[in-house]
Every structure is written in structure tokens, then in C-alpha cells.
Amino acid sequence: MIRALVAASALMGAVRGEAQGVRISGVTSLQYVELRPFVTDSSPIAAVPGTGEWRESPGGVPVLCSAVSGYCRFERSGARVGALPMLQDITVAGWGWVQGLSFHADLRGRTQVGGDGFTWPRANDHFNVLDAYAELDRGNWRGRLGRQWVTGGLGVYNFDGAAASLNRDAWSLEGWGGRALMGGLNDAYTSGQLAAVENLPPEDGGLIFGARGRYRPDPLTAATLLYQRVLVADRSGLYSERAAFDATARRFGAQADVNLTYDFAYGDWNEARLRIGTGAYRTSGATLQLRRSRPYFDLWTIWGAFAPVGFNEASVTAFRKLQGAPVTVSVRGAYRKYAETEAGFDLRTNGWRAGADATWLPAESAVVTASYDVDIGSGAAGSDGRLGVRWIPGSDVSVGADLSVTQNIYEFRVGTGRIYGAALSAAAPVAPGTRIAVDAGWYRHAVSNGAVGPDWSQRRISARIEWAIGRDPGSARP
Predict the structure, then answer these.
(1) Are 238 and 205 in contact (CB under 8 A)?
(2) What pLDDT is recorded for position 6?
(3) For the chain, which terminal residue's Cβ has fewer other Cβ atoms within 10 angstroms, N or C?
């Protein structure tokens, strides 16, 4: 945390001498989270009914028994432990000493204030430079140098290197290249963070090269084609080679979107999506989406060897703004068909999901929302209901309350029980350029039908301070 603040101060000092403008903003957040980790316990073999190694306790918990030791072992929820992770995000922007030249950096510091013996993920990774680059904007062309990321139809890719773009009328062309980093973590491919979760992490760093072309003949039509390769650092192998195409068009009150993602390494389409619907500003409308999805994995990871199957899906969404009442209601539904697993035994090959939500504006500064969703798939199922109330008297002031009921089976195992939640939140400015937001939630896990499993009951509290020093370059106010 200290290193993040020192780095921000150094950056400010470096730019302040020549720049006409420097702005530093940050978000300081502290969160308290309760958990109940699994612990291994045992019971005398005579106290567990049944025979053989695998038995079931009177409470329904699977146990592994050993005639040699005379004990049966099982897992149960341990005592509650609390974690207090703390994050400090700092954004530095400087501009004005050369026409069109600016500097931008995002820094993150993290630590753990307390933890009852539990270490929050990445709490020991105390400092990261998320991005730090210089940008030169000359109207028709723009260049960047440093740590940055590129977003698009392939997701988010972080890298250290250079990027440039050229704009001509309705056309634009962009290219980038450099040292590839882990997406979202801003670490090298060979970092310990990756090795901790992957059985076969890459032993060599990566090189990234990409290009993107855009065509926008009018404000209602746009198309983008993107190509990108990530190579082993010595160019002896390939981590990924993919392309994406995105297009959108709005005509006669309707909108059509096409999204395509192709993996050259596996020779397959990861995503193919067509969406056709009416505009969102109508009093009623509907959207139809057809989707073909296949999982994507980089070539360095072992997960692609398990050949997970994809699915084809059709979904429909409809909404209506009620006449004479400030209420908007929407419903949605989808049906998907999974590809054959060839696992040697029968598995469910279809799934569906459905949901509805409503928004009510009882006053100009108040909003009430409600939603319910259910998702039934192959090997997993879930349902989620929510009710929320917000009072927003000003742009920086809000007070809210939320109620929730959640059930997830198998993947996030809650069994036949449910988790009931209640949360309160509030945000308000405390000084010029400074805003504080606080929220607290209570979640109770209630089992039913004699179900057994871990206890997910917990409390969560978080506080966030948003602050800024210096003027906003996009605002006319100092």
C-alpha cells in the first residue's frame, strides 16, 4: 500500500514540473468478509452405521472409514473466520506540456488488515502497475507507448509495448504489439499467480501482435474486424491465434448485431451470435438472439485437453412500459442444446433459463426494482430472486436496500437449501472531490429436505472512499 502511494507521488512530481494539468484520483476500499472453511474431522468407526469404506453418517454426510485405524473421516464447516482485504487504486493523468501529449497510469496497492489466520487471495501481492503509458494524439493518428490493454471481441489483453491508430473518414486502422501479460492480472505469463492455479503454466513469456479495422459510414452502422496472435517469447510456439468480427446496424426502429469469434489454432468458432430487436427507447419491444458457443482455452493451459462441449441457444427478451404508470416490465427466456459429450454414459444435453424483472419509479428520486431468474443446465441449476429500493436525491447521494434469495446446485453447491440475504447501502460526498460509500449485507444459509453440506451463512461489510486532486480535463470547471 505504501509503495502505491509513493509511486503516485513520484509520478505527480515528475509531471508537475512541465505539465499544464495533473489530476490524481483514487478509490480506497476496505471490506470485511466472513467465511467457514472446510475442516477434516473423524468419528469412531463403531459410531457410523453401515459396512465398507464408504458410509453415510446419521446426519447424511459421506464418510471414509478405515478398519485399520478404527476411524471414519469426513469434512465439515469449521468455525467462522473473517478477512479484511484493503485495496488502494490510484489513477494519475498529466497533460499539456506538448500539444496532444498526455500521460496516464493506474496503480493498485493491496494488503490484508486482519484475517483470523485466513489469507485473502493475492493479499501478499502488494503492488501492481495496471497501466502506465504516454499517448500522443495528432487528430487523424494516435500513438501509445508503455503498459496498456486492448479490448474488443476477444476480451481484454494486457501488454507492455506500443500501439498506434489511424483515422480516415469512415475508416480507422489500429495495431499493437509487445510483451503479453496475463489478462486482468497485469502479470507476466510466467508469474507465480498463474503457477498457483495451473498444473502446466507456461515456462516462457509471450509476445502479442494484433490489428483492428473499423468501418463506420454513419452513426447507425458500424463494423469491426480484429486479428491477434500471442506467441512464445522466442517465437518457437503459439499461445493463441484468434479473430473477431462485430457489426451493428439500426434501421426503421430496429437494431441488428452480429458477433463472431474464430480460433485458428483449433479451427473452430468459439462464438457466433445474431441479435435482432427493437430500440430501447420505445414503449415496448422484443429481442431475438441466436447463439453458438464453444469454450476457448489458450494453448498453454491444460484445460483444453478435457474437450468441454459447447451449446447452441435461442433466447427471447420482451419489455413494455405501462401506459399511465411509471413501470417497465420485461421477461426473458432461452433454450439451449449441448453438444454430445461422448463420455460413455448418458448426460443431460439440454437446458433452459427464464426470468422477469420490473422497474417502478414512484418519485423522481426513487426507484424500485425486482427480478427473478432460473437456470437449469447440464450438471448445474440455479435460481435467484431480488428486490431493491433506491433513493437518489442527488447525483452523488444515494441510499438503498436489497433483499435476495439464491439457490445454486452442484457448481456452487447450496444443495436444496437457500441463501437469504439483506443488504443496506449509502453514498454521499463528505468534501469537495471526495465521496464515501458504505454497504453491509447479512446472508443466512437455510437447508431443507434434510440436506447436508457446508454452512454459507456470513456477513459482509465494505467501505469505499473516492477522492480526486486536480481539475478534470473533461470539465470546464477548475
Answers:
(1) no
(2) 44
(3) C
Do residues 147 and 186 make contact, with C-beta atoms less than 8 angstroms apart?
yes
Q: Which three cell numbers stand for residue 33?
A: 468478509
Rounded Cα gap, residues 228 and 230, in angstroms: 7
DSSP collapsed to 3 states, the chain: CHHHHHHHHHHHHHHHCCCCEEEEEEEEEEEEEEECCEEEEEEEHHHCCCCCCEEECCCCCEEEEECCCCEEEEEEECCCEEECEEEEEEEEEEECCCCCEEEEEEEEEEEECCCCCCCCCCCCCCEEEEEEEEEEECCCEEEEEEEEEEEECCEEEEEEEEEEEEEECCEEEEEEEEEEECCCCCCECCCHHHHCCCCCCCCCCEEEEEEEEEEEEECCEEEEEEEEEEEECCCCCEEEEEEEEEEEEEECCEEEEEEEEEECCCCEEEEEEEEEEECCCCCEEEEEEEEEECCCCCCCCCHHHHCCCCEEEEEEEEEEECCCCCEEEEEEEEEEEECCCCCCCCCCCEEEEEEEEEEEEEECCEEEEEEEEEEECCCCEEEEEEEEEEEEEECCEEEEEEEEEEEEECCCCCCCCEEEEEEEEEEEEEECCEEEEEEEEEEEEECCCCCCCCCCCEEEEEEEEEEEECCCCCCCCC
Chain segment 423-469, per-residue pLDDT in tens? 999 999 998 889 999 999 999 988 765 555 667 788 999 999 999 98
**Beta strand 268-278 pairing with 434-446:** unpaired
Model confidence pLDDT, tens digit, residues 90-129: 999 999 888 889 999 999 999 988 767 777 878 888 888 9
Confidence at residue 19, expressed as pLDDT on a 0 to 100 scale: 44
List the one residue out of 145, 141, 144, 143 whose CA is nearest residue 166.
Answer: 141
- pTM for the predicted model, two decimal places: 0.81
The whole-number pLDDT of residue 16 equals 45
Given a contact cutoff of 8 angstroms between Cβ atoms, the answer to whether 300 and 239 are in contact is yes
Q: What is the mean pLDDT of each run of 10 residues along the chain (478 residues)?
A: 45 49 93 84 88 79 87 84 91 89 94 78 85 94 95 92 95 96 81 73 88 95 97 90 96 92 93 89 89 91 79 95 91 93 75 96 94 87 93 92 84 66 96 93 79 75 92 58
Rg over CA atoms, the chain:
27
- Pairing outcome for strands 71-77 and 38-44: antiparallel
As a whole number of angstroms, the distance between CA 451 and CA 446 comes to: 10
Strand partners, 71: 44, 66
Distance in angstroms (rounded) separating the CA atoms of residues 269 and 140: 34
For residue 8, the model assigns a pLDDT of: 45
